[in-house]
Known about the structure:
By secondary structure, the chain is α/β, with parallel strands linked by helices. 33% of the residues lie in helices and 22% in strands. The strands form four sheets. Strands 1, 2, 3, 4, 5, 21, 22 and 23 form an eight-stranded mixed β-sheet that branches. An eight-stranded parallel β-sheet has the order 6-14-15-16-17-18-19-20. Strand 11 and strand 12 form a beta hairpin. Helix 11 (328-341) packs across helix 12 (352-368) and helix 17 (452-461) crosses helix 18. The longest helix has 17 residues, at 352-368. The protein is globular. Bound molecules: zinc ion (ZN). Residues 64, 66, 236-237, 444 line the site of zinc ion. Zinc ion (ZN) is lined by residues 64, 66, 236-237, 444.
Amino acid sequence: MFTIYEARKIITMNPSRPYATHVAVQDGRILGAGDLAELTGWGAHTLDRRFANKVLMPGLVEGHSHVMEGVFWRYVYCGYFDRMAPDGTDWPGLKSIDDVLARLRDAEVKLGDTKAPLAGWGLDPIYFSTGRVSRQDLDRVSTTRPIGVLHASAHILNVNTKALELAGLLRPGVNHPGVPLGPDGLPTGELKGPDAMMPVGSHVGFDRETLAGDEKGFRDFARLCVRKGVTTAADLANLLPDKAVEMMLRVTGEPMFPARIVSLRRHQGLPIPELIARVRELAAKSTDRLRLGIIKIVADGSIQGFSARLRWPGYYNGAPNGLWYVPPEQLREAYKLALRDGVQIHTHTNGDEATELVLDCIEEALRAHPSPDHRFTFQHCQLGDAAQFRRMKALGCCVNLFPNHHFYWGDQHYALTVGPERAERMNACATALATGVPMAIHSDAPVTPLGPLFTAWCAVNRQTASGRTLGASERISVADALRTITLGAAYTLKLDGEVGSIECGKRADIAVLEDDPETIGGDKLKDVRIWGTIHGGRVFSAADA
Ligand SMILES: [Zn+2]
């Protein structure tokens, strides 16, 4: 016995049979997609007509997010834009530093007499007149309780004086490129990059090892996935300590867990040979709904935080060049050993100097260990230029671009960070596709909200928050965008043989939509209403998520 679902339209992404009206599901897999008469040929079945008025497409694949988004919603949302929490609540964006401090003060009062730190996230000082936030600003919320507010980029942490004191950093003579000093010779409270953030992070609720094991946050992230039509999500930079892995295996193994999580081990805290060994050990623990065994390396910082590494002529507003997160020798060693052992690496590069360095290192590693189909993937790669995409193609690399940036920071990129010309080439989706580089697009949630159809809208329209079209010639078609948020992202995770299309033999992972993304119009793609998902043949409605 199997189930046949009837739909208004099924977009399959199967090139041999792009559309269907019915899909048959058995044992969590797709028995077939076609019309009713064809599918009844498989034998005894139940016809389920509940989606007869809906449009089905392959379950959406988010190729770069962080399950930590689920945890962050228990902290204070301090972002500039309105945003929806996993429980469906809409949080209004905060338009000034005073608004941010007021919301933090409300939350501080609720903490009462406890010694608990106050943590916030989503901060975006580039939108404020001062351009930055200092410890003195946060001291206006409390001088006795440690406070930390993570930037939207997640690459910079602002803390108050108390937090610096607890971390032993409230002293003169601190000499670190990620710890700017004020006129008084003391740190300003802005901490850039993981090295600078880590020692203070644990005092303000941002201890990555602890957050990795947060079960409620993990579950909340999966709820968001259902609301957004996502059936597979990459969790791109997890430290994956044993306790967290045990939790993730247990929770994803529950009969009604609604998503497949691909969790990458972030390069941090282990020498490269040990990192490779650890990741191979993790790979052996993979299950259907928890995939392990890929490495994530972060090469530089963020463009809007001016911590990305840019080639000449650098930042448009004259800001000094950004930070290297990993020394080049380590990059070289990582790619060589990973290719030797058949381990995949995804590398974050934002600035074009970082992309160039990583291309050089991968090319050198490939000479030592020629590897067909390694699918090493550039993540963000926002400033990649046409020549760099040609090198990616030649080296067999994939790219996962970040078009959401055009909406959230496009105006700032044009006016401040990289200037008009390079802002128009950012996230050059059309060039990547024309060059033949396998491409995904992503939200980097919690950096921007999870929602592949919104990301697809960004790639199709390249519209900024103020309404400017940024780089009209890099816009892509709706068809390309839809392929990119399904098969495209699945390919970068080496899952395209299992998910990303609705065809015989694949996992029964389906996004259930109220509207047809192919006919609603490219300018309305973000407004497509999502009913829910089918994951491995199990049905999840967003209303119940
Ligand atoms: Zn990320």
